[in-house]
Specification:
Layout (H helix, E strand, L loop, with lengths): L1 E6 L2 E8 L5 E5 L4 E7 L4 H10 L1 H16 L10 E4 L2 E11 L3 E4 L3 E7 L4 H31 L5 E5 L6 E4 L4 E5 L7 H13 L8 H10 L3 H10 L6
Parallel strand pairs: 2-4, 6-8, 9-11
Antiparallel strand pairs: 1-2, 3-4, 5-6, 7-8, 10-11
Helix pairs in contact: 3-4, 4-5, 4-6
Bound molecules: zinc ion.
Zinc ion binds next to loops.
Length: about 230
Amino acid sequence: METELAIGDVTVDVVFKDIKNVHLSVYPPTGRVRVSAPNDMKLETIRLFALSKIGWIKRNQRKIKSQARETPREFLERESHYLWGRRYLLRIEDHYDRSDVLLGHKTIEMNVPKGATLDQKRDLLFDWYRVELREAATPIIAHFEKVLNVEVRRFFIQQMRTKWGSSSPAKRSIRLNLNLARFEQDSLRYVILHEMAHFIVPNHSARFVSILDLHMPGWRIIRDKLNYGPLTEF
Ligand SMILES: [Zn+2]
C-alpha cells in the first residue's frame, strides 16, 4: 500500500512494507522523498516523524539539486547519450559549414562547424531532443485527449530541474521535461497521462489515482523508475 503526505511544501511518498523500522530517503535527481514504514504504523505517526526530519530532508534536497546543476557532459567523441531508453555513442564531425544531428543504429552523429563551442554543441543536441520529444508527444497527447475527453491547447517542452512535467488545468496546457527524451517512451506516456489527469482532478486523490490505474495499469513501476532510478545528466 502507498500514499503521500504533504509536509509544508515537501511531498513525501509513503510506502508500507513488512519491515520493523521506518526508513527515510531522498532520491536524485529531483529530491523525491520516500518513507518506508511498517505495515501497522499510523499515518499520523509517520507525519510526525517526517516533520521532525524536515530540516534533514531539505538539506539533502538542496545537495541533490546543486549536484544536478553541474554538467558532466563534455560532448566528446564516443560519449554515451540516450534517446528513448537506448544508449548511443556520440560521433562529432567538426568540419562542416552547417549543423545537424543524425541518428544511426548505435550512434548519434553531430556535424558541427569547426571550432564549435561546448554550448553550441549542447544547444544543437537539445534542439534535436526537443524535436524528437515533440514528435513523440503529439500522438500520445491526441490519444489521451480522446480517452480522457479533455483538450490540451498547448504543450511546452522545457529543461526542468525538479519535475518531469507540470500542468495548468485553467489554461489547458502542460509542460514536459526535455530530459524525458532520454527515457523509454512509457515514461513520456506516464507523465503526459499524469499531467492531463490533473485537468480532471487537481490533486493526487484516490480519484486521480483511479484514472491512472484505468489508463495505465503499470504506472507505479514507470514512476518509480523515473523518480528513483539512475539518471545520467545531460
Ligand atoms: Zn501531479
